[in-house]
Amino acid sequence: MVRRILLGSHLRRLRESRGITREQAGYSIRASESKISRMELGRVSFKTRDVEDLLTLYGVTDEVERTSLLSLAKEANVAGWWHSYSDILPNWFPTYVGLEGAAHLIKSYEVQFVHGLLQTEAYARTVVARGMRGASASDIDRRVGLRLERQKYLLSDNAPEFQVVLDEAALRRAYGDREVMRGQLQHLIDISERPNVRLQVMPFSFGGHSGESGAFTILSFSESDLSDVVYMEQLTSALYLDKREDVTQYESAMKELQQDSLGPDESRDLLRGLLQLS
User: Fold this and answer.
1) 138 found inside a domain
2) Model confidence over 213-230: pLDDT tens digits?
3) Taking Cα atoms as reference points, which of 209, 216, 202, 208 lies closest to residue 246?
4) How many distinct structural domains can be found in the chain?
5) Which of 30, 54, 76 is a domain's end point?
6) Given 34, 136, 204, 264, which residue has the most CB atoms within 10 angstroms?
């Protein structure tokens, strides 16, 4: 996904620098203007022949540059590790997994349940089972497996910085029995000690706050060509926002949430208190 976006944005810049319209570019590869638009947004795979023809149209003759971009096109078409789970995932979610795995900074606010990157296997199984009512045990196992695979990135050598605000409601809403919730609370305490994780709790006592629109995640990337993306999941779809004015508003909301929430140490104290009560 990220390689597609990088290649698409590069092709767009080349096209615009030559004053070529999307319609003209589409004609050169026997495709429509909308196909060029989808390519430049990184929403479709790239055929080597199409990229070669576009580079020729855009006047790219340097063999080193052509080879580099054609290699990027081949890499962009390689399916991610999560591809094998595509049959059990909603069609909008593989895009998120790809972006999440490429982000160097993830900021998230959750209100309904604990963020997927922080869920224990037992807690995740309860969440998945409730969200996939009627699904087979095998499908539930695979969905839980995907969630656990995603978590490995958070613990890897090149792990992203993860800043998360959990509403107190997410901590008090039971998913699973007493032991499941105790295990989840202890896991949050433990993982919050990791240097790349900043976990904060928005307590009930604060009252109304800037997260009134619901859960959201902001993904930031080290590649300068990639803009930040705001992700919001809905019942039957998801929104991906990357317009600067939209991202800025969510950045402001997240900043307020972090300022108004309990600090990391106070949040751990609250988690320990809940653990004692459970």
Assistant:
1) yes
2) 899 999 999 877 778 999
3) 216
4) 2
5) 76
6) 264
